[in-house]
Each structure stands twice: as structure tokens, then as C-alpha cells.
Amino acid sequence: MLMRGPRQNVSRQDTAAAPAVHPVPGAYRINQMLRMTESLSDIAVFVASVDGGRLTHAARVLGITPAAASAALKRLETQLGVRLILRTTRTLRLTQEGERYLEGARVALDALRDGRLALSATNTELEGIVRITAPADFGRNTLAPWLATFARQHPKVRYQLTLDDAVSDFFTSPVDLALRYGRPQDSSLVAMPLATLERVLCAAPSYLDRCGTPRQPSDLPAHETLCYTVRQRPGDRWLLRRGDEQCEIDVTPRWTFNDAEMVRRWAIRGDGIAYRLWCDVVDDIVAGRLVRVLPDWIGEKVQMNIVYPDRKLSPLCRALVDELTERCRTLRLKPG
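Predicted structure:
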């Protein structure tokens, strides 16, 4: 039998008020994060797949098997309860839900990377030598200023920069990182997409005043053109598109160069129409030294990759890859 003690009358004044509970700043966000089921490694597979356009790219960059990458993506979609990517044998396409999730996924991974870099910076100072090769035009106009800024932040690092449009052999040339248009033919190399660039037609106002302005792509063969030779190919077939329309125009160049910077300079001189990457001529167009030709038409897309021979990068190379990746996000990649 349960025995009860004598009942006591307790007034409200005798009862001590329970201490107020004040929420800790950020506690709600932390609580929400603890409820998340997504794995960061699965999120990284998703983002890398989108960046490279293939699950095999994510596998190569992250150092896992294609089967593991496929399983990670399926696991993430199951945990979220939505389809993020529509997959075929050759391509990946984001769903609407995937597009919405991608932005937040990038922010999460970037925040973790920034935190890791900040911690690394306080513990160890970067030092050593890094050997980089890049296409002459991109290296001279874009990469070199970025490296100069990085060098001021890391005074103990030394640099060897080679501007060359030839594909470097990592096994015979002392190269740590290579920036290259398109994917490397050697499947053993790691290629991480940095940016998708677009070509445009442009010319100096003086040339257009003298020779007239093309009104349609079929007018181009009658004009003086400036071409850039890449790997012994003259670059005299120009791919153009406008919405669903697409055409290839064969031109007979007045000048052909093996240096893209010479194409740009000759265009500014008024010696012909050039077919150049937008990021290389945007400053000239803004300044009025060049103007768009057939502005409704856009040239072919070119993917810029950063290529390296080993997935396990040194802290110096990893920091530089992260820096270049961040820089490319602010690059003016396309007209508009």
C-alpha cells in the first residue's frame, strides 16, 4: 500500500519561479543540421557530377569508383525524397528540384572548404614551388593577375608559369597543375571543370567602317578574318548558334597566328573579324576598341579544366586549385 505523507499547503509565493530558458544563438540552426540525413560526401558527389556532366567525373575527382558515385547519388535522392538528376547513358540533366538544391549544396561545401582553409592557414604557412601551365591567351590576360594576388597572400611560395597551348606531358615535364581547354585525352589524369567559356565574333569599329558589317553568318566568308591555329589546326571553321539554329561557317583567313593574343591585337588594329573567347575580349568591347559582330549569334562553348596527375594534391596545390575555382566564379564567362 502506497503511504502518503501529510499534505502541505503551498502558496504561489512559496513556489520558486522556474528559471527562464534563453535560446543559444544559432541553436535552432544547429538543431536543424543535426536532423539532416544527407551525407556531405554524397552531396559532394552530386555537385561534382553536375560540374563534370557525368557521374564518372565525380568518381574520378573524388577518388571513388563509378558504382560508389552512383550509389551516393541514389542515396542522397532517397534521403531527400526527390529526383535531383535525370540520368541517361551519356548525359545528366538537373531536375527543377536539383537546380534548387544545387545552390545550397554549393554553399555548404564552400563553407566547409573555407573553414578548412582558414584552419590550415593558421596552422601552417604555404611554401614551396608550384609549376603551372596554361593557354597563352587565358594565362596572360586572366591567370597571371590571379596568381599575382595569390602570391601576395603567400610570400613563401615560388612559381613557374609556362604559357603554352600545347598539351603538357605530366610524366616528362615538371608540371603540377595545367589549365586546358577541353578534356585531356589521357584518362589517368584528373580534370576538374573550372568554367564554361563562350566565343563571340568581334571586330574594330574602323574595320566595320571600311568593309561593312555582316548581316548574317553567310556574309562572313567574304570578309577579312583572323584565325588562331591550335595544334596544327587553322581554326577556320566557325560554329555559330542562335536559339535552336546552328551553322558552321568556313572562312579563308587573311591572317593566321599560333598566338591568340596576336589575333586580339590584329582585330583591335582593324585588320579583320576575330572569333574569340568572350572573357578575352570583354574589356576591349566595354572600352569600345572592339564591337560585337552578329551579336545575336554565339560561338561554340569551350570548357576550361584544371588538370593534375594525382587526386592527392599537396596543401599548396589544393589551396591554389580552390583559389582558381573561386576566381572563375566571378569571371565574366558569357555575353549578357
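Summary: The first strand starts at residue 85 and ends at 87.
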